[in-house]
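WARN retry 2 of 3 for item q-0093 after timeout on previous attempt; input resubmitted unchanged.
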Amino acid sequence: MAVARGAGEARVNAAPGNPLRRLVAFGQSAWLDYIRRGMIESGELARLIREDGISGVTSNPAIFEKAIVEHRDYDAAIADAVHRGLEAQAICEELVLEDVGRAAELLRPVHERSRGGDGFVSIEVVPHIAHDTRRTVDEAQRLWGVLARANILIKVPATRAGLPAIRRLIAMGVNVNVTLLFSVARYREVAEAYLAGLEERARAGAPLEGVASVASFFLSRIDTLVDKRLDALGSTAARRLRGQAAIASARLAFQDYKELIASPRWRALAAQGARPQRLLWASTSTKDPTYGDVKYVEALIGPGTVNTLPPETLAAYRDHGDPAVRVEDDLDAARALSARLAAFGIEPEAMGDELERQGVQKFIEPYDKLLADIERRRRAR
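OK item q-0093 returned
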C-alpha cells in the first residue's frame, strides 16, 4: 500500500477549489462529526456529501443529546413511541437507530464507489458498559445486527476492557470505530487488537474482505489537559510547550501506522483481503481561542487518514483551509516533546489514562441527561 508523498509534492499538485474536497487529493477523508434528523430531512446532509465531499458521519451520546434535547425534530417520533408504550431507553435507541440508518443510506453510494473503504456512519455502544468486555461485545454485535448495513461502524472505547472486545468483534466481522484514544501507547495496543482479530478470523476460514475499522485519536482534549498543567507551573519555559502535545502524539501514531502496514505480518493479512485500520483525528474543534480554528485539521493531513469535523470546524475549513500533507512535519520535535514535558512532571501516558476516564464520563453524562429528558417528555403525555 502506498502511504505518503512528500509534502512539497502534495503542495505542488494541490487542485484549486473547495478545501474540503481537495483533502481527498492527499489521501484524507473528511467526515462530519454531527448528526441530526433535521439535517437528514432537509437535504443538508446530502448537500454536504455532494458539495463538500463529506464521506462519513460520526455520532456519540453527546451529539445525540444535543440534537434531541435542543431541537424539535424528534417531537413527533417521541410522541408516536410514547403512544406505542415504549420506555425512555427504547425510545432513545429507536431515535438513534433511525438517524444512523438513514445517514448510512445516504452514504451508501460513497461506500460502494470506494469499494468499502469509505462512506461509514458510526454509532456508539452504551457508555455505561465501557469497562465491561462481555457486555460491550454483546451490545456491539446486537447493534451491528439491527442496523444490518456494511457501512456501519460500531464505536467501542479503547479502555482496557475495550481492547479484547475490539479483537473479538473484528474476528466476528463487526466493523469497529475505536474511540477515546488519547496516547500513542494505547494506539499500539488498539492496532494489535485489530491485527489479532483479523488473524483469528483468518484462522477460522472467514473472509477478511469487508471488515473495516478506524482508530479515533482525540486531539483537542489532550492539549486542554496538558496546557492546564503547563499553565499551572507558571514558567515561561513551560508555557512555550502549550498546544503541542496533541499534534505531536498524532504524528507519532502515524509513524507507528506506517511501520505496521510495512510489516510482514500486515502484508500477510493484506494478501488475504484485509484493509488497514485507518487513523481518524477526532475532537478537532479548537477549545483554546488563542489557537487557530483549523489547527487540528491543517497539521494532520496525510494519506490513509480521516478527519472528523464538527459543523463549525467544517465551515471554517471550507472557508480558509489550505490543504497539504503535513502529518510528517516536525517529527524530531514530536519525538523530543515527551521528554520535554516529562521534565516538567507531565507524563503523556498518564495524561492519556486521565483523559480516558474523563472521556467515558463525558459520554455517560449526556446519555443520562438524554434519557431523563425523554422520560420527562414521556410522562408529560
